[in-house]
Specification:
Layout lengths: L16 E4 L11 H14 L6 E6 L7 H12 L2 E6 L5 H8 L5 H14 L2 E6 L2 E2 L2 E2 L2 H16 L4 E7 L10 E2 L3 H14 L5 E4 L5
Parallel strand pairs: 1-2, 2-3, 3-4, 4-7, 7-9
Antiparallel strand pairs: 5-6, 5-8
Helix pairs in contact: 1-2
Amino acid sequence: GDEGFAGVPGGMQRVNDVAFSGDGEPTSYGGFSDAVGRAIALRDRHGLSDVKIAVLSNATLFHRPTVRAGLDLLAENNGEIWAKLDAGTEAYYRLIDRTSVPLDRVMANLLTVGRGQAIVIQSLFMAVHGEAVGDDEFEAYVDRLGALLDGGCRIKLVQLYTTARRPAESYVTRLDDDRLDAMAARLRARLPGLACEVYYGAGE
């Protein structure tokens, strides 16, 4: 129902975007392409064709034909891909993302899709057991971004952020604002043509 928005002034009641996201990976759903098509049709039927449809993804499955079909639909219909890249080295990637999919597969997927449409890169950095992500790891991460750009990947924006809610693992904590600012400054210095935004964690 609409009762949850009853107190919102009429001029502020709007649909900003439609997102495929959640605790699971949206592209792992077998009917992903069909779901994207249905969302596009429903949006357009209600006269909301200017509203973006976004897919927030870890990019591990972009090489699957059924997933690519859905991503191509997005590209043709005011859609956007927000893809995660949280590491520069394979070891740190496995520590943070805990996946069996190699980082090189993610990079290849980002490159292939990003050559066809501009993508947003979302990057989560944190402290693990009290130790913030190291300078060498972050430099390796910037190297990865540079490699994507050199390969023809069109990156619309990089979003650097840290944990905003209590993580599932108690040994994971947020980075402080100064550390995030320093990382963003380093990224901008090395890749000056790349847009970068920073999102800070909530206070303790």
